[in-house]
Batch of 4 targets.
Target 1
Amino acid sequence: MTEATHPNDNCRPAAPMQRFTTAFRAWRTRRHENAPPTDHTESPAPEPVPGASTLWRMRTTVQDEPGSLAALCTALAGQRVDILSLQTHPLADGTVDEFLLRAPGELPASGIATAVRTAGGTDTWIERADAHDLVDAPTRVLGLAARTALDAAELPLALRQLLGRCTIRSQPAPAGGEPVPGGVPVEGALDGTVLRLRAPEGGVITVERPYLPFTPTEFARARALVELDARLGPRVPHGRDVLTLAEGADITVRRADTRDLEPARAMHERCSDRTLRLRYHGPVGDADRYLNHLLSPRFGRTLAVQTASGRVVGLGHLLWDGDETEVALIVEDAWQRRGVGAELLRRLVAMAVDAGCASVYAVTQASNTGMVAAMRGLGLPLDYQVEEGTLVITARLGERVAARAGELGSASAP
């Protein structure tokens, strides 16, 4: 049996630049190392309730010969385990069978694995499932394709939901028409626990899942999602909201991407050095270098605030980082302390809830009273970490936030 032990739940596009201080990197390393996901199957299980049942996802490899699957089903039936769904992943030397199971609440994962091993299953992997897994595979894949078609920023999230806990890294295309790094063929490459796919922009998307090798079927599904993204080209939802600030000025909040690079640079030029330092935690001359990455839907979602004349005066970023997605804001000096940052932050949190994130964090400085006040204004449980002038504020998202997400609105709404 292969125990269901998993790495950190850090399925995220890798940070495109080194924008944090050494102190923050040290804090982050200590915070995440050896931290299991919340649904880790080796965590203490709740006390079984008589008559209750438990959902499990299981994979096992069987010989590709008549009677192998029948023996497996018989062994599961002997443990009173109900098979809710079954997918088969053919391999060169056998078949990987993926099950959704409903088992008696008192039957542990080890009991199911023992029965499977006795029936001839090998390389067995099992973890808890939930009601979301009851959706059949074709329906789930079609739903992910629809989300990707509507919004380019959905691709990393769709890959994560398709492939489970994994690490996703996006490597941009080399400048000057140089070859794709690593020599990845046009059709991509599958190597055990690593998938490498050609990104629509010419770079490489790498997906790693050390605890469970990818199957050719999963590779084909992931490649189809990336190809869909490439065919549709750059896109963000076109909706925008017009809001009236307390002082009476109207602003528009909308989604933004790399096509807003020039207006974003112009906003930087109007910002003071202090504003740029508080946002980018480094030399103000480097700020423009980050914009192309920050505006890319490969790394998250961006909201822009513009005036009635069309001038961009604020940006809010939701950067994919697993369950602890980062939020970041910059508002040009003339529009600060007018409610713009708070409005951006509320909308970013609503988007994080919609994406299924468990928390959001902001990296700033203790002297950035505006960001601290905006985080407090969310009315959420907050954690603070301060090291050598770097302040990390984490807001935990829960059911109360999900209930309020609709009230906060969305810049992608019509």
Target 2
Amino acid sequence: MKYIAFDSNNPQALLQIAECAVPAITPTQVLVKVSAFGVNRADLLQRAGHYPPPPGESEILGLEVCGTLVSIGSDVSGWQPDERVCAIIAGGGYAEYVAIEASHLLRVPANLTDAEAAGLAEVYLTAFQTLHTIAGLQRGQKALIHAGASGVGLAAIQLCRLWGVETAVTASSADKLAVCEAQGASVLINYTLQDYVSELKQHWPDGVNAVLDMVAGDYVNRNLNIMAMDGTVVYLAMMGGRFAEKLDMAKLLAKRITITGSTLRNRSVAYKADLVAAFSKACLPAFSTRELSVVIDGVYMVTDINACHEAIQRNATKGKLVVRWQ
């Protein structure tokens, strides 16, 4: 099969199309012929040597795919060849074929294109895990979504809208904020021009119940200033730096704030299976009714994979970037 190769000794080297063997499947897995795959910032981190796959997983880039079932493991039931599926994976998505645990599959709603389905799993399962499983958001509460125009950010905004949760977002430009507003965000903050702490204190003096943060750095202390009692801050990345100085423990204790970090890639097979099952039941039908959607910023052919990575590197995206094999 063909796959997209990178030079682990030279992160600046261009991605190249190469060939390797089709992966073998275990009794609990299926083999998927990939029609399209989503591209995530984590792929760039792995390419740079900062985010290796969990032990035993494919070294090939790629954390989410859409495609059709080719073969099915002996212990797998409920799936048939040629069904359209999408899924999260721990690696191997930038390839023509990928082996996936059957318990991690999502059935693609008939009204979704392959490109939309390819960009669904990683961002929506991450946002669902963050806001529902970890933060436990309830109808009528409030959330702050940093990097609101990112794929995860836009998925989080839509989930909050579905659940009756008000959202504030931060983003770096007016056009990114406009995309957030179109998905349901009600408080729009341009962090290059405005201080999000003072803005939120004006809009929501009682604070927010949950924060989804990919920035970290000096945001760690600043987030404490806008939290409601018993609020939860969930960190998914650290684009603003890995260290937070002079954490204000008095505010954390007084408001009983929970600060937690989360990743999805290195979770157990069972954890991911439970997450996929919960999301499928609670949210997947909403894609058929268009209450939820995948915001696609660009679809590239596989021969343009380097241009796709460059767009993410420039922080120029408003939604998902997806790559098609054909």
Target 3
Amino acid sequence: MPAGTAAGAVPETGALDALARALLDTASLTRVMPEPVRVAPAAPFPGGTSSARALLDRVTGALGLPELAVVPETGPLPAAELAVSRRLALRPPPGGTPAGDRLIDVARRALAAFPGRPVVVPAHDGTPLRCWAAGPEGAPAVAVASACGMPAGLAVKWMAALSSTHRVVTWESRGLFAGDGSGLGELKGHGLDVQGDDLLAVLDGFGMSEAHAMGLCGGAAIALSAAARSERITSLSLWHGDYELGSGAPKTAHQRDMESLLAMAARGRRQAAGMHRLMSRPPTLEALRPDIAHYLIHPYATPELLYRYGLLNGAIMSTDCRPLLTTGRPALVVTSAKDSTAHPAGSAYVAAHLPRAELRTLPEGDHLTAFDAGSELVGLARQFLYAVTTEDRKGT
């Protein structure tokens, strides 16, 4: 019996667990894309695509997820379906297609895995927000504002890193995520102020009177907006922030290109549909890390998502953040000299103009590694959170 295998267990359980977790991890895409989403196996199945489809049908059925179609090759797949295929890495399980109680156990473990199932919290205008919480109730609260339009999975490493000592909550951008078959719903508002209010609504939904706001990428602007609007934000950490600062700081070529793309997509659904056709080609995926590509491609997966993303992230990238740099709360501002996505000069400007900010410019790490919650970044975050928590206790 292999080391680590309990008596009575079957060797293929690990492979099935991994498949179930991957299916849940890609569910944000498969729930919003036209059905059936096509996937290609990473290895041949003895019975061909029909046996691969039988396996997927059993596992998606147990998880309550949309059915998937199986094609023999990744070549003809558009970028979003290719991203799902890569994340699933579908291979024949050593023990064959599961059945009965064994499959139910696999599904139960996957659904219970960190950070668990989402909780729907109403925004102040009634928009449903899909939220997650982890960590001990009653512990100091941290609200993670992740990059606009990205599934919660992109923030899970930060949730896991901080939830041993804090109650950590996060949410997904309004109007860009479907529930269990509920569709996208209406996009009632998209301004930066509205998205800042969403952070405060998440605190309301979990009964939190105050919190540290952690903003990553465009989430940094959302955290600033919430802090400028409410004293319930007791401190801030802003990681590789994407800011509009007028003449105060330059932008990277990526930021300028993204602003143009989002402005065009936000003009209307017809324009977004035309852009979506161009962006659906597989080369779009080549520069994206395969472990997170299915997150990054989510807001581009359908014409409607792209249109809404143009409105939401377009508002974040075009709203002047300089009037928001007024909060006297402690702030940690982190960037990297090697960030070619969000210009480090923007972070330097923000840190210089916030009354109580500390700037840390790291010599290594790009924009996406900020989401990896590496040991150095986690150490910085914990040190800052400990300092502000201690300061708050002394103040009381």
Target 4
Amino acid sequence: MSSSELRRTALDATHRALGATMTDFAGWDMPLRYGSEREEHVAVRTRAGLFDLSHMGEITVTGPQAAELLNFALVGNIGTVKPGRARYTMICREDGGILDDLIVYRLGESEAASPHYMVVANASNAQVVLDALTERAAGFDAEVRDDRDAYALLAVQGPESPGILASLTDADLDGLKYYAGLPGTVAGVPALIARTGYTGEDGFELFVQPEHAVEVWQALTKAGEGAGLVPCGLSCRDTLRLEAGMPLYGNELTTSLTPFDAGLGRVVKFEKEGDFVGRAALTEAASRAEQNPPRVLVGLVAEGRRVPRAGYPVVAGGEVIGEVTSGAPSPTLGKPIAMAYVDPAHAAPGTEGVGVDIRGSHEPYEVVALPFYKRQK
């Protein structure tokens, strides 16, 4: 796809004015980094970073049977999500394979109001999720609407983010729990303010109309000047989520894996009423995982300097025992790290003799529990 065909966010000119290195990500022209990705990463861990995430896919589900539709279409129990709260969940195929991992926000002020949900899909899967929800809506009194063009999404992440945002909003941030969202204004602009993120830090994601994106970005930049806020690209977002042990669709999650294979069986709620897409296959996958545990997602920390990449074999005793799904240098640990699926026999933290085959050379790695990094609360 040529750069002229790529979709551009409402902040495109802002990124270029800041000298961003742009990249094609899921058909969008997105900022990879503005300067040093290491410095952007450290800023989020120690101060604050500002991201443009407008490539994410927003899908609105409304109507009297919106909750029933989502309970049927997704593996989670969406019917129990209270107004103003959000839930991490997945959408699976009939065979249990993961189509995408999602965040579902329940909007609206009261239990009495007609349910109103916003499903946020990964950019690379937004169309697939939209098509699946539309197809699965047959027979339900509910409407599925493509709202990808209705929102720009900005994220401010890091320990200084509550103070920065508090100076610009009328919303009660102190009362806003993790995985909750509430309507408010940011710099005078109407926004859905959510305490969610993909960095392992405290922070907020701000859904605004695209025509307001630039003024909100500029207001946050100005408010964050004294706190060391910097603009951040997708490159540091990837190393931040890797340190935090958060899965990335296409790496740790794919259609060839069920949530149980990915160690995320907890998101599948068999106790909810009625059928849901993939229930039979996932029941089987759950029982299979219990009797014969699948490969386990673990953390690997390098003893040397060479960086493992997705697809590299994990080895022990001359045998291939797994595969790297994501790898990068970790600015926080000061060493290369990776997530990998490995055989259960080699999954315990501290397991001896595990390495990664990096172009024919078996580099030693330490097996550790995920996440690599957890913020101090």
